[in-house]
Amino acid sequence: MAIKIHLFLLAFFLLVNTSITSNEQEAAYVATTPAPSKTPSPPPTAVKPPPPPVAKPPTPTPPTPTPTPTPPVTKPPTPTPPVAKPPTPTPPPTAAPPTPPRNTKECYPLCLVRCKLHSRQNVCLRACVTCCDRCKCVPPGQSGNREVCGTCYTNMTTHGGRPKCP
Question: I need a labelling partner for 44 at 20 to 30 A (CA). Which of 2, 20, 35, 105 fits?
């Protein structure tokens, strides 16, 4: 029931608003149109013909210059030679990878280089020689580069779960 009252009030408001707006527009229209004059117009008499139009002399058009003929092309354009790519630089020759150590005696000099800067050289040498003997590889340098020797070297761990190979 309350909804009907709200709809009725809304419809009434719109109706009133529309009628006021249309009245304002009509009043504005009436104010802008001229009122008809009260003076009587003279009776129609003989209509005078309009005066003849004055003929204007034709304006002279300036002569257009004739286009000069283009000379015929006798020689076709020369094709550009294909651009040669510069030769790709060849990588410098790398030293042949050292042969893998075959026994513990061959591992020891490689592990000396590897453990040179370690704080506990004896522990490092013992672990390095063990890893070298099992995996037949010692990474280059004094630290890092473990991935060079593959998964055997990188996945070997101590009993505590830490990496074994230096």
Answer: 35
**Angle (CA) 69 74 77, round 5°:** 110
Find tokens 């005066």 and name the residue. 51
| Domain spans of the chain, in order of start | 104-155
Q: Are 137 and 154 in contact (CB under 8 A)?
A: no
Residue pLDDT, tens place only, 114-146: 999 999 999 999 999 999 989 988 988 888 888
For 25, half-sphere exposure in the C-beta direction (CA atoms, 13 angstrom radius) is 6
Q: How many helices (H) and strands (E) does the chain have?
A: 4, 0
Is 0.70 surpassed by the pTM of this model?
no
CA distance 20 to 64: 67
What is the Cα 149 distance to its own chain's centre? Answer: 42
